[in-house]
Amino acid sequence: xxxxxxxxxxxxxxxxxxxxxxxxxxxxxxxxxxxxxxxxxxxxxxxxxxxxxxxxxxxxxxxxxxxxxxxxxxxxxxxxxxxxxxxxxxxxxxxxxxxxxxxxxxxxxxxxxxxxxxxxxxxxxxxxxxxxxxxxxxxxxxxxxxxxxxxxxxxxxxxxxxxxxxxxxxxxxxxxxxxxxxxxxxxxxxxxxxxxxxxxxxxxxxxxxxxxxxxxxxxxxxxxxxxxxxxxxxxxxxxxxxxxxxxxxxxxxxxxxxxxxxxxxxxxxxxxxxxxxxxxxxxxxxxxxxxxxxxxxxxxxxxxxxxxxxxxxxxxxxxxxxxxxxxxxxxxxxxxxxxxxxxxxxxxxxxxxxxxxxxxxxxxxxxxxxxxxxxxxxxxxxxxxxxxxxxxxxxxxxxxxxxxxxxxxxxxxxx
Length: 415
What we know:
The chain is of the alpha+beta class. The protein has helices at about 170-180, 185-195, 215-220, 250-255, 275-280, 285-290, 295, 305-315, 315-320, 345-355, 355-370, 370-380, 380-390, 400-415, and strands at about 5-15, 25-30, 30-35, 45-50, 55-60, 65-75, 80-85, 135-140, 145-150, 200, 205-210, 210, 245, 265, 280, 325, 330. It has a 4-stranded antiparallel sheet with strand order 3-2-5-6, with no helix packed on it. Strands 4-1-7 form a 3-stranded mixed sheet, with no helix packed on it. A 3-stranded antiparallel sheet has the order 12-16-17.
């Protein structure tokens, strides 16, 4: 029987999910202590404990040189990567010289800049999370350099401006004629599958709804970024609270051609033996014991998906856009070529302009990517249509029942 190993490594990230370099840390385990500092990748040394369930205390050195324990985790069979995210961020900025006063001279009152907090200024609406931090170089009234630090929406060059159009029955009628499907059938299918939402508003911008998929990005980039960026690149998709997971073994990685230094948890499946199933833990329990965290491993829609997309886009633009589902009908960017778009960027710009453009993409998807749906809708076979579009999960969400009920409603309205 092969010897079991229990190794742990820590990845230190700042609040913007950037690796923290030169972070001094200590790892306490099995009566021993390892003291070192991170490199450019934000990773600690990999330590090996004696057995499963051994406690590891992770401590960091603060600016005043004091030591603080920030997490306690427990070893398990295999190699485990523990990701710790700081509430602070790193700012890419530098200081410039200020004017100096002569000996005995009182500096001008104009030296100070405008107050950081202005009670007269209207408050901006609260946003769950901004896209990131920007630093703008400015000068105060005395001409001295100051830096204005604020969160803002970056230049989303892969999107177009929303034109303000809305969906009408004319759009469903166009889709009906194009696909040769009853008006009530295509309208019912489209409305149920889109859930009525194809756009979201962030600050004052209207953007297409997306859902970023890290396992797609990992596959498209051959796991090039998975070791250091598990929040946006991993062989396994984002985790569900109640699903069971186990650490991926060396054999798992070899079979799927995944680099050995990429650590991740995989979902338990029916082929796993009883020993593996016994070691499996629910995602919510892994979070509770601080082995994993929601920020890195849970699904986020809305602005959370955009933050992930923007980070991935900086690493590999095309793969990042292909790794999202877009718009009302959540069509994956990876299908852009099959659907006849010139590039994935042309597809994403189209999805950002209007709901009408999203309906056109929906029709192209049915025609060119998943033509079985057309056959099922013509036959009013709601269950097969829902399965073809949503996969095995269609029953959990009762899509086939919702489509049938919507169809019957629209048919009554026609008479």
